[in-house]
Amino acid sequence: MTLTQPWATVIAGLLAVIAASIAYGGVLVNVRHQRQAEIRANRLALLSETVSITETLAFGLNRRRTAIKNNSNRTDINLKLFDCFEQLNIVIARLEVYDLGEVAISAAGYLATIKMPPDADSDTEKAYEVKQAEARAELRAKLAIERAKVEKQ
User: pTM for this structure?
Assistant: First the structure.
């Protein structure tokens, strides 16, 4: 059986449509993988940013405690802490957007703990520092868990 010109054209057209469909499917899979990799990279960067801000806050709080004990000027320290509070609030919102709710809740708890003013009693001051350290440790643990989850994706 010999193919006539019209049938050969139809078959060639069908093969071209099938090849184009396969190529289009490959592009869709590639785009999906790239998007997932981008989201994963953004989530890891956000977790790292959370660690950075948390550590900056902890350092600033320690500097502030030292300045209070030495009765020295702490205006610059307070401004830096205020800036960190704002940054952490923004990061908390971004954590929720990236479906990192547990870390967001823990970060919000840490922020609430460090914003809570201590009483004048020195024992209470020590308890206040312990609460801050516990909240920070909880946040660091959640960050480590989420980082491990994201890295496995």
Answer: 0.74
